[in-house]
Design goal:
- The chain is mainly α.
- The protein has one domain.
- About 75% of the residues lie in helices and about 0% in strands.
- α1 packs parallel to α3.
- The protein is globular.
- The protein starts with a helix and ends in a 5-residue tail after the last helix.
């Protein structure tokens, strides 16, 4: 994981993380190896912090209803 990747993950909101997660192409480097593990960990932490109502709202805002 590069310093830039870590800094972006740390600074991103839950919605920003979710949007990138949903819209990234298959095999995107951000979701591979140590970087992907860290991304998933931070995303889960931020989801828990915002709570279920905000998580659902973020999902709907980026097209979570399919």
């Amino acid at each position: 994981m590069t310093d830039e990747q870590k800094a972006w993950i740390d600074a991103a909101s839950y919605q920003e993380l979710l949007q990138r997660w949903r819209n990234a192409p298959v095999g995107a480097p951000m979701f591979q190896g140590d970087t992907g593990d860290y991304y998933a960990k931070v995303m889960a932490e931020k989801k828990a912090k915002v709570g279920p109502d905000a998580a659902v709202a973020a999902s709907k805002a980026i097209g979570g209803e399919r």
